[in-house]
Amino acid sequence: MLRTTSFVTGGFTCVNRRILSRVWYSNGANDDNCDRLKHKSITKPVDPSARVLRHIQFTKRMPFQQGLAIQEQFVRANLDMKKVQSKIEQKLVELEHEYQGNATINSNEKQILDKILAMKPNPMVLTFEYEPTYTGGKRIKKVITQEQISQLENFKPTKDIMNPSPKFVQVERGGELTFHGPGQIVAYIVLDLKAFKNFPARCLISVIETAAKNTLKIAPVRKGGLPLNIDTKRVGDKIGVWVMNDDKIASIGVHVRRSITSHGICINVCPDLSYLNNFEMCGNPDGKATSILNEFPNANVTIQDISIAFVRELAKLLGIDTVERMQTDGSEMNQL
């Protein structure tokens, strides 16, 4: 069945009509834009809004702060809807107390409330490839110096010498210094933890790690080819994904506001590793970064291939049966 769907942005009553015009098969088993997934999950949706995972792939490289602003629009939509939902629930409790358990609402009122609550945004993954950017997490917010920032912003890479100069951006995720840039997939995961069964933030981090490990293990070397089969692990109690020789291939950092998540994971597909290996990344002075290309030089995979594979694995672990995808170069978001 062919259908369109609404993407809620900014406030819960605001939508971008240019995005609304996108169409895909929502339940076609053979359609590339919709995956019907059979799997063993770590959690499962307990709210109807969480039964579909929406994946927006940004196909054009963009500045980091533009992607951050796009993420914030979707986070705000979730927070605004939670505020509306809380007010409705509080009012119903007040009516129940006022009428000593005999309060009722008529069918028209119930229909209106159901329509409002049905506007709750679905879980969403936004995947990006950024211009060179160093980002600071909460742990270095008060200690990083202007001299250190200047060193980052004046760094010249070994291979990708034509790239623009890196920028430094302070963000509100967990962790320390991280690089985002060409050759990496950055996936922001925006969802309501309370829409899933027994799913605190630490479980989300575990799900992200596992989805990344599964992706690096089973994603195909090329379309229709054998799997990458990259073995990975976790190092001690550190958060992230490492290959077996202790080189890091993916960094994770999340932020939670009123159970709404943001940020997520960065996976090294084919970046210039000099960006990562000339500075202390993620608080690990002795650590080195690696990439899919570095581990598997003959791999013919793209940023978009890995983003699709990662979101599929994430959906499995979340107990979500359907992934709806759309691709955009980001120009539609300029109106948000």
TrEMBL record:
Pfam families from the UniProt entry: LplA-B_cat
A molecular-function term among this protein's GO annotations: ligase activity
Sites marked Lowers pKa of active site Cys: K248
Organism from which the protein derives: Maudiozyma saulgeensis
InterPro entries given in the database record: aa-tRNA-synth_II/BPL/LPL, BPL_LPL_catalytic, Octanoyltransferase, Octanoyltransferase_CS
Residues at the catalytic site: C282
A GO BP entry: protein lipoylation
Recorded superkingdom: Eukaryota
Function: Catalyzes the transfer of endogenously produced octanoic acid from octanoyl-acyl-carrier-protein onto the lipoyl domains of lipoate-dependent enzymes. Lipoyl-ACP can also act as a substrate although octanoyl-ACP is likely to be the physiological substrate.
Protein name per the record: Octanoyltransferase
Sequence ranges assigned to domain BPL/LPL catalytic in this UniProt record: 119-322
Pathway in which this enzyme or protein is active: Protein modification; protein lipoylation via endogenous pathway; protein N(6)-(lipoyl)lysine from octanoyl-[acyl-carrier-protein]: step 1/2
Signal peptide: none
